[in-house]
Amino acid sequence: MDYLNQDGLAHSENYARTMEEVILPYINARRTDRTLIGDGGVPLFTSRFDADQPRGTVMIVHGFTENADKFAEVIHSLLKSGLSVVAYDQRGHGRSGRAEGLDGLSLTHVDDFDEYVRDMDIVRREVLSDMPKPWRVFCHSMGGAVTALYLERYPGAFRRAAMCAPMIAPNLSGMPRPVALALCGAERMLKRDKKRIFTSRPYRERERFETACANGRARFDWYEDLRFRIPEYQNNGPSYGWLREAIRVTDAILAPGAAERIDARVRLFTAALDDVVLPGPQKAFIDRVRLGEHRVVQGAKHEIYRSGDDVLFPWWHEVLEFLEEE
């Protein structure tokens, strides 16, 4: 039986075995890990994956509570297509450094979203700089917000960007934006901006598939098993400071004239079943990008890249073709 599809993705049948026996050995044989000093001295764990005959490089910028290893399957696909990869754990995530004074590894905090942007630039200069060109970006969720800001501030850095359900604006689940900002501001004044928001609890057990951001059961199960074994991968909730910055980032991304400065070709994918980020601000952003294109992925929840085969395979084939183009 062929356990991989034409693009090097794993079929859901025997998924865990394919990941452990085929995909991980392949990508780890081409992997070099390195820890950089990020903005403000925070350690950044980075990985480069060298394709056998590279014809360009893709930087992967993961989302909130994620890490680079969560993208192992798509890294395999990119390598098989001849694209080298740079991936890293953003500050406060995975094996990168965390802010002092947090209550456990599962709490996610940042003082300012610009720290993420400056970290991305350090990774570009320190790791990507000697990787094959042209350079592209694949980003997801919070990583989409970071990438949007980066593309606005650093024209010419990347040729193409594929955005998977980017967090141009978070879904606040019915809480009015001014109320959420006021709550976060009050916690900041009380010096509790590093405290976990009241609706979140520390990580103690595997997430339930029924409430997950993914609708591919095999992909969900494989990563939850990995996450359960590695405490550094157990991010599961924001601080008041992170939430405040996530709300405020919308104004920065959609500032007058900001999106118009982007010179990369950008394709933004909205997940039709997304309840984590808002579709309207995504459309408002991409409509202002000169070389922007918008797609809606039917049947996909927020983590499009962890959909079932019927949704994932055609979507990722389009992403791959887009990233492969000159």
What's the structural blueprint in terms of helices and strands?
Elements: H1 15-28, E1 31-37, E2 43-49, E3 57-61, H2 72-80, E4 84-88, E5 107-108, H3 113-126, E6 135-140, H4 142-153, E7 160-164, H5 177-189, H6 217-229, E8 237-238, H7 240-253, E9 265-271, H8 279-286, E10 292-297, H9 309-324
Parallel strand pairs: 3-4, 3-6, 5-8, 6-7, 7-9, 9-10
Antiparallel strand pairs: 1-2, 2-4
Please explain how this structure is put together.
This protein has 326 residues and is α/β, with parallel strands linked by helices. The chain has a single domain, classed as Alpha/Beta hydrolase fold, catalytic domain (Rossmann fold, 3-Layer(aba) Sandwich), CATH 3.40.50.1820. Helices cover 35% and strands 16% of the residues. The strands form 2 sheets. It has an 8-stranded mixed β-sheet with strand order 1-2-4-3-6-7-9-10, with helices on both faces. Strands 5-8 form a two-stranded parallel ribbon. β6, α4 (142-153) and β7 (160-164) form a beta-alpha-beta unit. α3 (113-126) packs across α4 (142-153). The longest helix has 16 residues, at 309-324. It is globular and about 55 Å long.
